[in-house]
Amino acid sequence: MNAGTPQSGALADGRGPHEPAGEEIDARAAVRECIEAGRSGLLLDAARLPPAFFDLSTRLAGEVTHQTGVYHVPIAIFGVDVEGREVAGRPIASRSLWSWIHESRGSSTLRFFARREEALEWLSAP
Q1: Which end of the chain is more exposed for a tag (fewer CB within 10 A), N or C?
Q2: Which pTM was predicted?
Q3: What is the pLDDT of residues 46-99, one digit of tens each?
Q4: Nearest residue to 16 (alpha-carbon basis) of 33, 38, 45
């Protein structure tokens, strides 16, 4: 990924949030690209994340959020209906996943949103 390549949702100076392209997002690669490009945050579409991301037993989500926490890169994931308990239109069946999503509402490093616009607004806030 070229740091000068404009990304969807990027600010004019190229330092806005990084939104990875492609059918399915490789969350680890997206974090690496975001950090290397010096972006202000990471914007992820829940529908494009692999199911393993939301299966907490795989530890993928924990690994990704730990890495972004170390580098102080906030993550906004949209396509999550917290009130309706759905991720990308699929019901949240796991109690631990629901707890993780619910508890992130007060986090400064990870938040879940129903709409992309809400996620961008949060990432753009000072």
Answers
A1: C
A2: 0.80
A3: 999 988 899 999 998 998 888 888 888 899 999 999 888 899 889 998 999 999
A4: 38
Cα angle: 19, vertex 117, 121; to 5 degrees: 85
Cβ burial, residue 61 (10 Å; 0-12/13-18/19+): buried
Hey, is 123 helix, strand or coil? helix
**Ordered DSSP codes for 10-74:** --TTS-S-B---SSS--HHHHHHHHHHTT-S-EEEEGGGS-GGGG-GGG-HHHHHHHHHHHTT--
Model confidence pLDDT, tens digit, residues 7-60:
343 333 356 778 887 667 788 888 888 888 888 899 999 999 988 899 999 998
Q: Is 108 left (phi over 0), alpha (psi -120 to 50) or beta?
A: alpha
Rounded Cα distance, 1 and 107, in Å: 28
